[in-house]
Every structure is written in C-alpha cells, then in structure tokens.
Amino acid sequence: MIINHPLLGPRDAAEFVYLGDASLMNRPDAGSDDAAHAFYEYLYLRDNPAGEHKELWYHEQGDRSWLVVTRNTLTHEISNVELASGVARKAGGSS
Amino acid sequence: MSQSNRIDGGLVNRNQPYSFKFNNETMHGYGGDTLASALIANGIKLVGRSFKYHRPRGIMSAGSEEANAMVQLRTGAYTEPNTRATVAELFDGLEAKSQNHRGPLGFDVMAANDFLSPFLSAGFYYKTFMWPKALWEKFYEPVIRASAGLGTLSGQADPDQYDKGFLHCDLLIIGAGPSGLAAALAAGRAGARVILADEDFVMGGRLNSETHTVDKMEGSTWAETATAELYQLENVRMMTRTTIYGSYDHGIFGALERCTDHLYDGSGKPRQILWRIYSKQSLLCAGSTERSIAFGNNDRPGIMMAGAVRSYVNRYGVTPGKRVSVFTNNDDGWRTAIDLKAKGIDVTSVIDTRSIAAPYNVANAATIMGCRVVDTVGRKGIHTIMLSSGQTMKTDCLAVSGGWSPNVHLTCHQRGRPTWNEKQACFLPGGDLPVGMSVAGAANGEMTLQAALTAGHEGANNILSSLGINTASAKASKASAESAKITAFWHVTESRSRAWVDLQNDVTTKDIGQSFREGFKSVEHLKRYTTLGMATDQGKTANVLGLAIMAECSGKTIEQTGTTIFRPPYTPIPMGALAGRARGKDFRPFRLTPSHKFAEEQNAAFVETGMWLRGQWYPIAGETHWRESCDREVKATRESVGVCDVTTLGKIDIQGRDAAAFLDRVYANTFGTLAVGKVRYGLMLREDGIVMDDGTTARMGEHHFVMTTTTANAVSVFRHIEFCRQCLWPDMDVHLISATEQWAQYAVAGPNSRKTLQNLVDKAFDISNEAFPFMACGKVTVAGGIPARLFRISFSGELAYEIAVPTRYGDSMIRALMKAGKAYSIVPYGTEALGVMRIEKGHAAGNELCGTTTAANLGLGMMVSKKKDCIGNVLSQREGLNPDKPLQLVGFKPVDTTTSLSAGAHFVTKGDEATMANDEGWMTSVAYSPILNCSIGLGLIQDGKNRMGEIVTAANPLKRSSVDVEIVSAHFVDPDGDRLRV
Amino acid sequence: MSDFNFVSQPVLGGFSQESQGVSITEQISLGIVSVACPNNGDEALAASAKKAFCCSLPDVSGVEVSDGGTMRWLGLQPQQWFVLFEHGADQGDPLAIIKDQLGDTAYCTDQSDSWVSLEISGPLAISALERICPIDLHPAVFPVAAVARTTMEHLGVIITRTGDDQFLMMSAASSADSFLHAITTSVKNITA
Q1: Which of B132, B114, B122, B124 is nearest to B50 (CA)?
Q2: CA B29, CA C56: separation in Å to the nearest integer?
Q3: Does any CB of chain C come closer than 8 Å to the CB of residue B701?
Q4: For a designed S-S bond to B695, which of B28, B337, B708, C127 qualifies (C-beta 3.0 to 4.6 A apart)?
C-alpha cells in the first residue's frame, strides 16, 4: 500500500506502523463520574466497518508523524490522510 | 548428435554455436535458442515423465505456460528443479536432466502407475489414505513423498546471490509484444518515465514467432527497430528477462528479473532480482496463451500447441516434425500450416472442428472440415492420428489450437473477476481492474495484430493524457491483415481413451466428470479435488478447458461457472529471490555497543537482545563454564567493583515548557516534583492499566529531562509517547528525540565504584556521597575535559553509577574505566551477572514486565498516583485487576538448597496436585546466587506478601520436576538499601 | 594531563572506497544538532536562525544551506530540523555552536555521535541505491537539496541529495556495520 503523506507525498506503507481506530484519539476525561465506563468503551469497543475506516498510522521510518488515514477496508482505497496533531487540535485536544 | 531438425531462418545466431548436455549426452545449439528449441533441433521428443502416471511427455509450448517439459537444470549446489525448458535460455556448457523417472527416461519403472490409473483418479489421496491412521506417518507419507514432486533439490545451501530493489515510473508496460512496444514508443517519445518489462530475453513477443508485417517490415524486424529506439531513450527502462508476477495495492507490482540465469557463470553478480515497482499507471500487454483441445491420448510427445510450432519454426529455425498435422477450432491454427508450408515442411492435414468453408487454402494438405482427432498412437512420440471420420493419418507432430486465452492474470490479483466473451470464446478482463491499470492487445481480446498495435498506441496516449503529459504526434503502426474467427470446441466426445485437460497434474476429462458426480461442482472445489490448474504452470493452458467441461457437466454456461481466483505469482518465484540478501548473518541488521571491540578482546560471549549484541559474560583463563564467569563477575562486583555496558537502554531527550507535566501524564508516578539534578524511577502503564515499561528519568534542567527505557521497549515507548504528544495532547509544549545512539553508557557498580570514578572524573566535580547522593545526576567531565553525564542509580543493589560519554569516546571510556578501577580489581560484567544481581536485589525486569502484570502485582501499586490522571490510571483500578488475593512479586528459595529452580514453574499449595485449578502463580526469573550459594527465584504468587515463610511447591510439568520452595522477600540482598546510600 | 587517553573514533574508522564508479566515504567530522521549535515559537526561531546563521527554516523534506555553504538545515519532521556542519572532535561541544546562538528560541539536542554518515557519489550511485532505497531518487522528484527519512534494509536512514550524483546518508551509529554492508553490497551488485 501507499500512504499519501500530507507533508511528504506518497510513501510505502512499510515505513509506517499501524495502531488502529482513530477514535483512540478521543481519550475520555479521567475526572468524570463515569470515567471507568468511558475508558472501557474507549479502549475496548470498536467499530469494524466493511468500508471507510479512519485509522491511525505512525510514520516511524519517516517524519514521526501520527496520521489519520481514511481507508476503505474492502478495497484499500485511501481517500484522505491528515496529520493527527492537526485533527486533535481541531477537536480541541484535551490539553 | 547433429541438429537433425534445424531448418533455415529464425532469430538464432548461427555464429554463436553452443554445446550442452541433456541426460549426459552432448548436443549442439545456437545463441538465441531455448533449451526446448535446442532439444527439438536435436530431434529430441521425449523430455520427461508426467507427474502422476509417469506418461512419456514432450515439449508442448514455447513459453512460460509449459506444463510438460520441466528439467533439472545445472548441477551440484546450483541445480534447479522444475525449470521449464521452454524459457531456459541456452548457453554454452548448459547441463540438464529429465525428471520424474526411475531408471532411464525411455524406460521408467514408475510408468506402472499408468496401468493403475483407474485407481489413481481424482480424489485418490483423499479416499485412499483415510485409515488406518497409524499407517500415515510410517507408510503412506514416506511413499507419497518419495513418489511425488518432479525434480530434486540439491540439499545444499544455494550458492547464488539474490537481490531486491525498488523502481518508480509513470507508466509500467507489462509485456513487450506488439501492443507493449507500440505503447512504449508512444509513451517513451512523449517523455514519460516508462518501464517496459518482458519475461522473454528478446522483446517483440509473438512478432518474433509470426510472419506478419508491420509498417511494411517483417514483424520481428519492426520489433527490433522499435526496441533499438527505446533503448536510446533515457526515460525508458527496458527490462528483458523480467516477469511482472504480481499486482498489488496502489500501483505496486512485483517483478522478477533473471540476471545471470542465461550465463554459465554469473561472476558473483546477483542471479535474480526481485523488484518492487511503484507505477502511477500500468498498461497490461501480456498477450494471450493458446489452449488445447481434449481428445484421446492428446499428451503424447509431438503433440504441441499450434502457435508453439510456429514459434519453433519461425523464431528458432527448428521444426518439431517432418510430417505435421494441424487440429484447430479457429482460423489462427491454419497459420501454422501456412507458415510450415512456406518453410517447405510437409503438412499432411488440417483438421478443423468447424463445419464451414476452409478459411485458407493449404497446398498438398488434406483439409478436413467438421472433423475431430479421436485418438493418437506412439508411446514415446506420436506417429498416427485417428479421426472421427474414421480416417487414419501418419504424422510425427500434431499442432493443436483450441483458441487463445487472454492473459488476464494481473487484472485479477486484487479480486477482479474476468468476464466470459462467447463470441471470442475467452475470458476478458473484467471491469474491476487494479488501481491505475488498463489493458491493451491480446490480453484485452484484441486478437489481431493491427488491433493490438492500435490498442497499445491509444492506450498509452490515454494514460499520458491522464498524467498531464503531451502525446507525441505519431500514429499507430500498420500491420498485415489476418482473421481470428473461432467456434468454441472443448473436447472430443467420441474419444474412448483418456483425454488430458491438465498435462502437468495428469487431470483428464474423466476426472472432471467424476469430480462433478461426487459433488465437487464449483470451480474452486474442482481445483482442489482434481488438482486441475495447480503447480508451476497454474493451469495456463488447462483452466478454461477444465471449467468449460465442468460447465458442460452441470448444464451451465461458462459465465455461470466462472473461474478460480488468480493469485500471484504469475510464474514461479525461487525462494532465494524472495529471501534476497536476508540470509545467514545478513538476515537482519545488528547493533553494536561502543565497547564491542573491547568485549571481543576479552573473549566475551555475546547474546542477541533485539538487534543488539551484548556481552553475556567475560571468561578469564581457566574458566570453562559460563557459570564460573558469571559467579566471579557477581562476586567481584559486590565485593569491589564491576562495569557493565548499558548503552543499549533507550534514551529519550525530552524538552519543553510542559515536559514535566507531560511526564506526569505518561508515567504513573509524579515527575513535576523532581528537582533539577535528580533522577527518579518511573513506571509507565498502558492505557489498560498493565505495566508497559520502566526506567529512570533524570531532570537535566527545568524544561529538560532524559528518559531511559528498557532495551527491548525503546522503540515502542518512543512510539507511545509520540502518540500521547501528537494525538492526545497536541498543545503541550514538549519535544522528543531519541538519544540512545548518542551516548556510550556504563554502569559502574560495587563498593569501590565511587573510588574508581573519582580517578576518572575531573577533580572539579565533587562526587562524594554528600555532594552527589543516591539518585543524583549531572554533567561532569572526565579525563581532562571529555563531556560526560553521571547518574547515581543502581540496578545491582550496590553503590553504583551510570556514566555516559559521547559514543565516539565509548571505546576509550571502557578502557579508561578498567584502568581507573585496576587498583580495585575491576571486572567487566555481562548480562548474565547483571541478571543475577537484579534478581538478588528483587528488581523487576522483562520477565516480570511481561504484558500481564499490574503495578500492584509488582509491589509498586503505591506509585500509581491518585492525585493525577495518567495513561492507565483509570483502568488500573478495575475490579478485575484488583482481586482479593492478587498475584504479588516475592522471592523463592528451594527448601533443599542443592536443587535448582526453573523459570516458568507454577506454584501450588504444598500437597495439592499440579493442576490448572490449583494454580497460584508462576516463577518469573531464576538465578544461581553466588552470594547466597543457592538457586533463587522471583515469582508472582497469590497473596504472596502475606505468605512469607510458607512452603509451596513449584511444579514444572514440562521438565517433570517439582520443587518445594519457601516464600521469602524478593530482596535477597541488602533489603533495606543501605549499600545504595553510602 | 590526564592518565587516560581518550580518542575520538569514527564509527567506521573513516571508511572510504571507490568501486564500480561509485565512491563511498564516511564523513568523520560532522556536527549534527537537532533543533525543535517551541510551540507558538515559530517566528522567534525563524528570527534567531536568520540572525545567527542567515538561514531561513526549510519545510519538512527541504534543505537550506546557510553561512556560506558551511551549514545545512534538514527539515525532518514538523517543527524539527537537523543542522549539519563541519566540526572536528577537537573543536569542543557541537551543541554549543547552535544552542548558544538560538538560546531560548529552540530546544537543541546533540546528535553528532548518534549517526554514521556516508557520502555516496558517482554516476552509478543511483543504480546502487535503487536496490535498498524505496524512495524515488529521480532528479525531478528528489532534486539537489531534498531530504527524506526512510528505511533501507530494515534500518532507518536519512538521505539528502548533495549533488547531481551525490548523496549524504545517515543511519544509526550502532548499526553502522550493517548499514555499510547494505551499501557496499548494493554497489557490488550493480549489473548495469
């Protein structure tokens, strides 16, 4: 596979490490009343779509960027690639 | 032997005579021959024995689709089995042997199988070897293994070199026949980056085998001219002897280039290269493959594809027979008769299954329309054919054409399905092509030369437009006219003898009928049950025939029946090419510490930890067992001083205004409160509450920390904290960079470690206990100004330091430390002694941080701060991880101190049976302690802290051992840590 | 004077070879300092780099040459650069050269000893590198002053084009032997 890195252009998937569902970026608030349940859902419950899937890839043998890659799990078509830090900032990262 | 079947013409180089050996007999051929054409030139018909029935077989094709003519090529360690003679280029000194016979090729004792054929039909193995089960290993398997397979392996290491590589292009053109050459000219002249690859050693494809004209030139001349022009273009990479074997995601292709297979001696260059080709667009110009017709005894030597006969006659200047007949269901088959006539070869008859007017006039040959070949005679070479009309004819070569199947394989490697075209009686590429691929020429059903040339030209121009490249103005080349009419015809129903569908796997029409009757009706089942389409040729000539017959059995259309899935590779890939350079010690890279040379000089034994090679122990004269060395190193260190290379620990430089706050979030314990110039042990959890890693982190400045990780987790910890930084808390000002490689770091441990270092550290730096207490850190210089970092930390439990210098001084540093500690009899110690001392001290390491343990399990529960959130904090409090009687890390000593403990042993209450139900935990690490003079262990056992002094049983069913052990403190040595602080 | 003899040792002992029209030379006096930009500190860093080194900061995968060609800034990842400059072992702390100038506008880390640096040059350099480098090195795609970080033979590698037929390649110091082996084998295997 080839991942079209937003800063570097097309790079072989062999340079990347896969993590999983991009929802892992939405870490729950540890201070909330239902934190235990929220963390359980966050860590263990995943959608497994046959089709478009937003997922996290790390350019370990490259620029060390974490990327949010939108990939069709049926065809491997990659329709969008974004820097995860940008996505996280837009979502109002929990800093 | 003379070249009895060599005729005039062809593209072989008669000024380049070669001699070669087949079955030890010396023969002659020319440059430009394949082994197959050279064998034909020498009048050889019988070249091998079939897989199952050991039937005599000859050459049936002139290309990579060959199902019969497989030979054992070369000798000794270089030998390669199952090499298709039709693609093996002849070279001077080539040696080949026929395969799959016991006794001489002409008299194979295994041919008895042929008479047992009623018992060896489809599903034979499945039915026969069911029982008795006991016979399987002792009898069936050895017998089958001895009889199965064709060639043999050398049993020696492959002496050849292989390589891999990466290529990039705008347009990959697969196949250099007429459409491929036309496309390459169009794209090359327009300036696109083109790769043109062909499996043959000469470009031109069928142009070299046919007598067509292009632009008023002979086809082969046009191909040569086009090829010469393309070689001149810097933007075109010409790759002959290169098979594009697989199509992968996003325009990536696999290619095998055979670099030295055509040479007697490869001169040390790689024999083959496995290329990964990244293409923006690809044009498949793979042509088509002729298929046979199934009729009685259609496998005899001398029965050949009609197009292959033309290849031998036109390209190689050899004739497979002196009296040739043609059996066809299409117009193209007639070209064989016409071309042979033009060469003065006797054509006895043309038999056409179609009841139409003869499409061509062939002088002096019987042309028989609406007729079939029913049977043939001639065990080691055909001599007679019997026709459905009742006629019998003498012939020594039967050229058969059942029509051409487009080579759609690469269009299907990503689950694309080809579609059946009834008019052309073939499968064409389906609509679901791999990304960026288009198809031109015969591979796309454009079966005439003109159609192929035009399709290649236009296909390339369309691709250029999509890439935004201006097309050159030239028009497609003009070719002579031809006809490609066909009426599908699959098998001769009048035949009483066995009619072969798949020659390589000995699958007959009857096997397909039987498969259908026994319920294996889908094509995928048919394939597995009969082995139709398996092995090296992957059924290139057989598949369509087989499934057409299956369609007939089930009363379905071919479209409804479908095809099996095409998978890579298109043709066989040697294992050596897949391995590339990654063999022996080059299997993977290795990492060396800066003291490696020093350690070698000390005769150190090395252990692989990840990619690192670390000194395991350092034997001195007289030591014959590793334990002697290890025990000595431990004792010397605990009694005086030892030095260990700990460069391999991961080091991460962390800087930023939020660095401390960041560490508070990634570590379970607190770092915000750590003073500058101090080190703290850090415990890192995974988000699920399990311990991920541990290490010490030093605060070098207000906004500057140096984190250490375990050797094994250096990469995964870096990845994890980058995830935290970028994905979770992108607004924190924190920056990471690995500094593992920057520093050569040594642990200096033992009561004399300070004195040793005081000899080395420049006097300006006070490292006394008062000035530089336990867990202090700072920058110092050594040996008169060499920059260094000093950390007062201890893994051994002794007074200890770690000192780091820039890597370039690592070798000097170990030698300087040995000199500085000489007065204290300093020893280098390896990972074994390191392990013993950390077990004696009760420190958790990899065996304890095994991905299932919590901080509480390790006795570090108090470190998980309740005052702050951190990765893993919330879920570490889960009920499931906090049972009433949790596993707790404690020490174990054998009751009988002469017995040794084993890691992995499980604990049961004394007297209980060693069963899963009674399991209370397991021994994680064991060592022989030269300090306690007995075997000791660390382990996790339920409620261990409250069971001090209890005797339990450590059972190891794998070793059939059972040892009574006493639960003790994990801190065997210096439990109060007094030694650390002196 | 110290009792101890400290010698600065190049990882590959100053390796150099010329074979098949390709030369490979270990760069033994290269200072390498990583520079990271504090969050929201882009302008301040740009200004200090300009002032101290007359250098504008390249984008990721770009290279800027400054100070009369003596200093190369490689854009390696968002908000992070490697600065490369000639720096002998006897010239003191390479970190100070950069850090003293940039002050609080950057986070600097010495990387001079972390890498083995090889210059590979010659008309057939690409024929050797295409055996291990997955990156497209065609001059139209990877021109002079382009930089990429990728993987070759399982090793992380930073590659930058320093001339038409000349590349500087950096890989981890600890696996220098494996890295060198990968490159010399690639040169040996040139078939063109």
Answers
A1: B114
A2: 67
A3: no
A4: B708
Joined tokens for residue B116: 């047992």
Question: What is the H or E stretch that residue B169 is in?
Answer: strand B162-174
Name subunits touching B (3+ CB pairs < 8 A).
A, C
Chain A interface includes C77 (CB < 8 A): yes
pLDDT at residue B757 greater than cutoff 80: yes
Spell out the residues 6+ positions from residue B364 whose beta carbon is closer than 8 angstroms to its own: B341, B346, B347
Beta carbons within 10 angstroms of residue B624's beta carbon: 8
**β partners of residue C26:** C118
Minimal Cα distance from A78: which residue of B?
Answer: B250
Find all residues with CB under 8 Å of C166, minimum gap 6, and list them. C119, C120, C121, C125
CA distance B803 to B854: 31
A53 touching C (Cβ < 8 Å): no
- Token readout for B917 is 């139900």
CA–CA dist B422, B65 (Å, integer): 23
Token pair listed for B744: 């050569």
Residue of A nearest to B277 (CA): A12
**C-beta atoms of B723 and A58 within 8 A:** yes
User: In whole angstroms, how far apart are CA B954 and each of B67, B124, B852, B885, B929?
Assistant: 61, 52, 20, 19, 18
| Terminal CA-CA length for chain C | 56
Chain A residues whose CB is inside 8 A of the C59 CB are 7
Interchain CB distance below 8 Å, A11 and C150: yes
B852, B669 contact by CB (below 8 A): no
| 3-state class (DSSP) for residue B745 | strand
Pick from B249, B728, B869: CB nearest A25: B728
A61 in helix, strand or coil?
coil
With CB atoms and an 8 Å threshold, state whether B869 touches A94.
no
Q: Quote the crossing angle between the two packed helices B509-517 and B523-530, to the nearest 10°.
A: 120
Which residue in B584, B670, B624, B599 sits closest to B817, CA to CA? Answer: B599
Under the banding of pLDDT at 50, 70 and 90, the label for residue C191 is confident
| Residue at B281: amino acid letter | Q
- Say yes or no for a CB contact (<8 Å) between C77 and A63: yes
Would an 8 Å CB–CB cutoff place A7 in contact with chain C? yes
Establish if C169 touches chain A: CB-CB under 8 angstroms. no
Neighbours of B133 (CB within 10 A): 8
User: What is the residue-wise DSSP string for B856-876?
Assistant: TTTT-GGGS-SSS--TTHHHH
C-alpha–C-alpha distance, residues B288 and A1, integer Å = 29
Q: Which of C141, C129, C82 is nearest to C110 (CA)?
A: C82
What is the C-alpha separation between C52 and B885, in angstroms, rounded? 63
Q: Does B869 touch chain A (CB under 8 A)?
A: yes
Alpha-carbon distances of C64 from C45, C59, C140, C162, C169, rounded to whole Å: 15, 9, 18, 11, 17
Instruction: Convert the pLDDT of each residue in B700-749 to its tens digit.
Output: 999 999 999 999 999 999 999 999 999 999 999 999 999 999 999 999 99
**In chain C, which residue's Cα lies nearest the Cα of A11?**
C135
Question: Cβ separation of B591 and C175 shorter than 8 Å?
Answer: yes
How far off is chain C from B800, nearest CA to CA, in Å? Answer: 21
Distance from CA of C63 to the nearest CA of A (A): 13
Contacts of A83 in chain C (CB under 8 A): 78
Angle, helix C42-53 to helix C94-102, in steps of 10 degrees: 120
Of A8, A11, A12, the CB nearest to C60: A8
Helix (H, G, I), strand (E, B) or coil at C20: coil
Q: Kindly state whether A53 is in contact with chain B, defined as any CB-CB distance less than 8 angstroms.
A: no
The interface predicted TM-score (ipTM) is 0.98
pTM, entire model:
0.95
Q: Is the dihedral of CA B612, B616, B619, B625 positive or negative?
A: negative
pLDDT cut 70: percent of chain B above it: 98
